[in-house]
Amino acid sequence: xxxxxxxxxxxxxxxxxxxxxxxxxxxxxxxxxxxxxxxxxxxxxxxxxxxxxxxxxxxxxxxxxxxxxxxxxxxxxxxxxxxxxxxxxxxxxxxxxxxxxxxxxxxxxxxxxxxxxxxxxxxx
Length: 124
Description:
Elements: E1 37-48, E2 59-65, E3 68-85, E4 88-101, E5 115-117
Antiparallel strand pairs: 1-4, 2-3, 2-5, 3-4
């Protein structure tokens, strides 16, 4: 059943494939080289002051997951809080929902994805 999530003709990849049914194989399967869409909900990470908060719905290439560069599309910003400690403010904590292609720029390790900043998209 997972196979059609990787198909170029799958609904989320722009095609019309509705997936396999009744144990029959999908006769129009063509593997999408990007893999399938992986969704993460309410993922928290730190953003320093000199970096723009990602825009919802806009493609973003400034982040990597587990050391692998990914093109992320944020779908919802759930919460933003100040990131501070005894030395002062350092930026903000952001909790957001987003998706990315699973096979883009290499496979992910099986551990929980960890988002990190790889380049500066705004400001300084």
